[in-house]
């Protein structure tokens, strides 16, 4: 699976109100963990599923006449830093935009949330049969999503149970295979045009929720294809402030990105994993290091974190 760069991870998190400095030395793997925690906070996963494992079959189907879109859409409460897509609202005739400018990572989360809201609306209007191709005109990679069913976790929480597959080189025969193998007679496949980075972010969410699916969960019989990976969508909310604070904390040692054990005792502004990194950094840091108390002379002394 193509993955996001360090810079993209940080800027996507910044777009979710999780403000990490761009020079954070975290490895991409650690940034991915941080992103997954942020996504779990945004879909309130731990609150709704304290036992972690999701088996959609344990929940009733969403009521046939109750529209899904208003429930998905009302959960969006823009935050102060909520980035908007400069492309704005587009009519169908204007899409796709194969030559549109590079997507700023800060708006990618917003785009994913908007797309999930749109998918919930499609579920309402397409008589609850839904197959979607997330693709882009200038990239050959695409993500195929089939929504199997929608379940009522509680009265305000629907869950779209789905299968997805990544198609690395989209060709006509992939459409033919999907049309022949997955779609019900007469069912249409809807197309969403998403840039590569937006697809990457979708795959982050899908692969996170794949891990939340219980090993006992089964796809419906007609969709038991080995290429499908099981996952789901739930309504996405603004991340609660305590979670924002928790997720923006601990940005790692400024030199190596490892967990910190203390900070510069003179200025209390820079965090390190230990004395070695602090010594390495001193040559650069000493010009910026200002004592919090005027009586202290700048020197490379490590103040230990109380918590560690
Ligand atoms: Zn270090
Ligand atoms: Zn200092």
Automatic annotation (TrEMBL):
For whether the record's keyword set contains Ribonucleoprotein, the answer is no
UniProt GO molecular function:
zinc ion binding
MYND-type domain: residues covered: 253-289
Signal peptide (UniProt feature, chain positions) = none
Q: Which organism is it from?
A: Macrolepiota fuliginosa MF-IS2
Q: Domain of life, per the record?
A: Eukaryota
Using the UniProt annotation, give all residue ranges assigned to the region (Disordered): 288-308
Task: Please identify the protein, giving its name as recorded.
Answer: MYND-type domain-containing protein
By its UniProt entry, which Gene3D superfamilies does this protein fall under? Answer: 6.10.140.2220
- Alphabetical keyword list: Metal-binding, Zinc, Zinc-finger
């Amino acid at each position: 699976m193509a993955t996001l760069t360090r810079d993209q991870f940080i800027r996507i998190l910044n777009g979710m109100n999780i403000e990490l400095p761009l020079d954070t030395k975290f490895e991409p793997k650690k940034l991915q963990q941080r992103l997954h925690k942020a996504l779990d906070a945004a879909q309130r996963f731990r609150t709704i599923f304290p036992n972690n494992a999701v088996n959609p079959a344990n929940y009733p189907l969403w009521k046939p006449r109750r529209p899904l879109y208003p429930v998905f859409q009302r959960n969006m409460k823009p935050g102060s830093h909520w980035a908007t897509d400069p492309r704005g609202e587009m009519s169908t005739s204007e899409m796709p935009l194969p030559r549109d400018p590079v997507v700023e990572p800060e708006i990618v989360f917003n785009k994913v949330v908007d797309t999930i809201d749109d998918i919930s609306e499609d579920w309402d209007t397409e008589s609850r049969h839904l197959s979607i191709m997330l693709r882009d005109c200038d990239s050959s990679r695409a993500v195929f999503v089939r929504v199997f069913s929608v379940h009522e976790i509680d009265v305000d929480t629907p869950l779209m149970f789905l299968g997805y597959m990544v198609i690395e080189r989209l060709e006509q025969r992939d459409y033919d295979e999907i049309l022949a193998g997955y779609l019900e007679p007469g069912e249409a496949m809807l197309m969403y045009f998403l840039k590569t980075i937006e697809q990457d972010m979708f795959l982050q969410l899908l692969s996170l929720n794949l891990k939340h699916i219980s090993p006992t969960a089964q796809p419906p019989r007609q969709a038991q294809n080995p290429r499908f990976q099981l996952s789901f969508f739930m309504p996405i909310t603004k991340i609660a402030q305590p979670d924002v604070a928790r997720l923006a904390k601990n940005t790692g040692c400024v030199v190596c990105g490892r967990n910190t054990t203390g900070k510069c005792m003179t200025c209390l502004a820079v965090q390190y994993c230990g004395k070695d990194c602090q010594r390495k950094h001193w040559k650069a840091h000493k010009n910026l290091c200002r004592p919090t108390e005027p009586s202290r002379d700048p020197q490379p002394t490590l103040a230990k974190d109380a918590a560690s």
